[in-house]
Write a structure and sequence with these properties.
The chain has 315 residues and is of the alpha/beta class. The protein has a single domain (2-229), classed as Glycoside hydrolase, family 3, N-terminal domain (TIM Barrel, Alpha-Beta Barrel). 41% of the residues lie in helices and 12% in strands. A seven-stranded parallel sheet has the order 1-2-3-6-7-9-11, with helices on one face. A two-stranded antiparallel sheet has the order 4-5. Helix 6 links the parallel strand 2 and strand 3. Helix 8 packs parallel to helix 9 (205-220). It starts with a helix and ends in a 6-residue tail after the last strand. The model is unreliable at 6-21 and 23-34 (pLDDT under 50). Residues 80-314 form the Glycoside hydrolase family 3 N-terminal domain. Belongs to the glycosyl hydrolase 3 family.
């Protein structure tokens, strides 16, 4: 019995140690700078406001990316042509990518221009998952800390760590003017060779759910909305959905137990993102265009988040 107790204490210590190492990796100088210098830090209440989603979303349906990978400087400010096209589309939000960012000053100016021409209530979004998908974190001039992949966070089992990561990201993204993070990834991996790689918190739906819930709470308390993704879950897929249309050959009951649990934990996220996959045992349509999938979200899982889809230029 004592041997078992000793092993338990060792495991607890090991998990706590990993949590402290990851949390301690946040550069104190940068973080204290964000905490102490509030000269241009937007007040949460002013920044977030009282968003009336029914009004913001009325007759606006698209998130638009402004992209030019071969010539990034062309999309780091708004040309008259770009402004005219954006006004014509009248998007509900703009999603920014690495080529849109030069430094913090340029980013703030770009976002200010977007709000000037498209409305102050527009959503400015980014993919900031940590690890390989860190659109702002990978640019040191933006002042957003690049966190490790969420798989390493999930291994700690420490939901408070996930909360802290969300909180810090929220503060730093808000400082730039970004008010929506297309994260966290709520997919549960079924096998080590999953196309998701290290983007997900791991394998256990329940453990992932705890992490998801904490991350969302942390980031949204700072005035940055979260978009939990990729419903109905990519964990059981065999191909990368960026390259091809994936298949989930499972029943609704199976997915309820193995895929949907993290999304239930993440129901406080203001957005939920649909993947582009086929689930023939649930619907004959691709999930991003399936009424059956929407009914599961609304009626089976009682999730009221705004439903959006993954990018339409994917597989």
């Amino acid at each position: 019995m004592e041997g078992g107790d000793g092993m338990f204490r060792f495991l607890v210590f090991r998990l706590l140690f990993h949590s402290l190492v990851l949390l301690g990796a946040v550069p104190e100088i940068e973080y204290s700078y964000f905490e102490n210098d509030k000269s241009d830090l937007v007040d949460i209440n002013v920044f977030l406001g009282r968003v009336d989603f029914s009004n913001v979303l009325r007759e606006r349906y698209f998130f638009v990316g402004i992209r030019n990978v071969s010539n990034p400087t062309a999309v780091q400010s708004l040309s008259k042509d770009a402004i005219d096209k954006l006004k014509e589309i009248n998007p509900v939000g703009i999603i920014l990518f690495r080529e849109n960012f030069k430094d913090a000053q340029q980013t703030k100016k770009l976002i200010s221009e977007l709000k000037k021409y498209l409305g102050s209530d527009i959503f400015i979004a980014v993919d900031e998952e940590g690890g390989l998908v860190s659109r702002t974190g990978e640019n040191e001039k933006l002042g957003v800390y690049k966190f490790p992949a969420m798989e390493s966070v999930g291994k700690t089992g420490d939901a408070q760590l996930a909360y802290k990561i969300g909180e810090i990201l929220g503060k730093q993204l808000r400082r730039l003017g970004i008010n929506l993070n297309m994260a966290p990834v709520a997919d549960a991996k079924f096998s080590p060779d999953s196309p998701l790689g290290s983007r997900t918190f791991g394998y256990s739906s329940y453990n992932i759910g705890l992490m998801i819930e904490a991350f969302i709470d942390g980031i949204q308390r700072q005035g940055v909305f979260a978009a939990v993704k990729h419903f109905p879950g990519l964990g059981g897929t065999k191909v990368d959905t960026h390259k091809d249309l994936a298949l989930l050959p499972y029943s609704k009951n199976f997915l309820m137990i193995n895929n949907f649990v993290p999304f239930i934990f993440g129901k406080e996220a203001k957005f939920i993102m649909l993947a582009h996959v086929l689930v023939p045992k649930i619907s004959g349509d691709v999930t991003s265009m399936s009424r059956d999938i929407v009914n599961i979200i609304r009626h089976n899982l009682n999730i009221c988040s705004v439903i959006i889809t993954d990018a339409y230029d994917m597989g």
